[in-house]
Design goal:
With about 650 residues, the protein is mainly alpha-helical. Helix content is about 65%, strand content about 5%. It is built from 22 helices and 7 strands. It has helices spanning about 5-30, 35-40, 50-60, 60-75, 80, 90-110, 115-120, 125-155, 160-175, 185-235, 240-245, 315-325, 375-390, 390-395, 405-435, 445-455, 460-500, 505-525, 535-555, 565-590, 600-620, 625-635; strands spanning about 250-260, 270, 275-280, 285-290, 295-300, 310, 335-345. The strands form 2 sheets. A 5-stranded antiparallel β-sheet has the order 3-4-6-1-7, with no helix packed on it. A two-stranded antiparallel sheet has the order 2-5. The longest helix has about 50 residues, at about 185-235. The radius of gyration is 26 Å and the shape is globular. It starts with a helix and ends in a 12-residue tail after the last helix. About 50% of the residues are buried.
Amino acid sequence: MPDSVNSSLALFLCYTAVVLAMAWFSHRARKKKSFLSEYFLGSRDLGIVALTLTFGATSASAGSFAGFPSLIYAHGWVLALWIASYMIFPLCGMGILGKRLNRVARETGAITVPDVLRERFDSPALALVATLLLAFMLTVYLIPQFTLATLIMQQLLGEAAVFQQATFSLAQLVGGILPAGVSAEYALSLLLFSVLVIAYTTFGGFKAVVWTDVLQGFVMIIGVMVMLVLALSQVGGLANATRQMERMTPPRLGTVVFGVAASAPETGIRIPVDTWFTIPDEQDGSDRLFRTNQSALILPGETRSAAIKVVEITTPEEIATIIASLPTREVPPLVATPHITALREYARGAGEAGVYVRAPGPSLDNADGFLPIGLAVSFFAFWALSGTGQPGNMVRLMAFSNTSTLKRAIASLSVYFALIYFPLVIIFCCARILAPGLDQTPDRIMPVMAFLLADGAYVPWLAGLLIAAPFAAAMSTVDSFILMITSSVVRDIYQQHVSPDAHERRLRRMSYGCTIAIGALATAGALFPIHFLQYIIVFTGGGLAVAFLGPMALGLYWPRFNTAGAFSSMIGGLLLYLALYVAGYAVHGSATPIRPLGFDPLIWGFVASAVFAVCGALLTAPPPDLVRSEKTIESGSRPTSTSTSD
């Protein structure tokens, strides 16, 4: 194996050992404490460093280190406008809900977000609906996290002889069962990651999640800073990168089948991922340059591979630069003959130079480009609102120790996000020059860049540190969300509705079993990866925020808000949000939603959520606690405080 792969694999194994050790210590530490409170909230004692980094690491998920970089790589500089509001998200997410949510959770003994809603509105039915929505949406949210971690595992292990042998064995065993477009390498990597993260989360609980989040938070920011320096130095500076991007035209995307004249030998034939090859142009005889985005396997006794993804470079200057950068300054011959089976042009930007440095950016599907003006405005609001409404972030706010910790964490986290997201835009604009031709599988651009930058700096072991950053992002989100789904199912469904007097041993076993089941569902979902992971993250993140932000914020700040208003807000807003996606699928035949007036469904979902909340609350009777409080005031007695007061 190359030196960078050897060192990265060794560092990955060390990282895995540290993570498992943290889970073991956490398991030991909670033995003498209440299982539910300790396993799911870590005894509510998070300090400034723990709160900042566990909040940041959970928020900076696969979307930050796979979905977001892949969009930068695919669409260019316009992504700086798309992510611009993320730096103010801590001011909204922690400042609006933090203090009151923490206080209510402590006073009521709430452990989960549905717990808080149940206590605030005195409604088991509302808590049950919230639990079901949360469990479903978060399970979908886990899929891109599993996919990113799988791509990293595949990049780490792809050149290992034992991994390749296992891949061939798996392909022969279940090759016909795997979904179309899913390689045996990907399936085996997914299985390895799933076993690791499920075992760690099941055994460790909330405290282990926080401890590893702190570690992963440091790993992420160090990795990003190192990548920024290396990317700029190897591309010749930011100005040079921008000039080269200005001359680029978008590639063509398609599929290729590799064939041989005689049957493949017993060892089979493997065309590695990222293999460059040329095909003569039928019109002028010039060479057309392609790059494989998946590995191709011709199994023993067969003559053709399955169709795999391929990218054709279209910029003449870029083609010449790529060929000149190859070791022999020419494209090496292949052991099999490529047959292009499909090619597709971009809907906006095909043959047009400069689209990577101007808004709205190139788009494969949308003739209006990636980020029209209405969508740009929508996403400036999206991240602040969506992040604030994430149940995963709310759970963190239920676990910090005091108000001083919250205030310092808000400032620290704003800086932390700025040090991650601004550099990522620069790094992955540079990636268009340093790692061209990955447009069919852009979600793996982060691990590819980790190896490329380490090799370019002649420091092979550094790839281990760089690739740990995206792996840490996926790992921190996976463990947090699995634990949150488990806590909601065990606490809010089983304990509240099935067995209120369940012994702690039974709750422990239920929690472990639920964690394993959720991990298995996410693993199955990750067997069907989509072109951009970020689309799943945006959809599920927006749906969660529309469903939960209105009921939670109004419940904490508006004493008149009642159960009917909470139900109306949660269901009404979410239904409109989903309807725009369903309508988009019906019209476009894809996941592109309908956007009235150019605004994203999240904006319309929040508008509907607010309207339904106010109408539902004002058209029905006020909460019993408020009625009693008003009668007390009328009688001249001193009113008692409610859980929503400051």
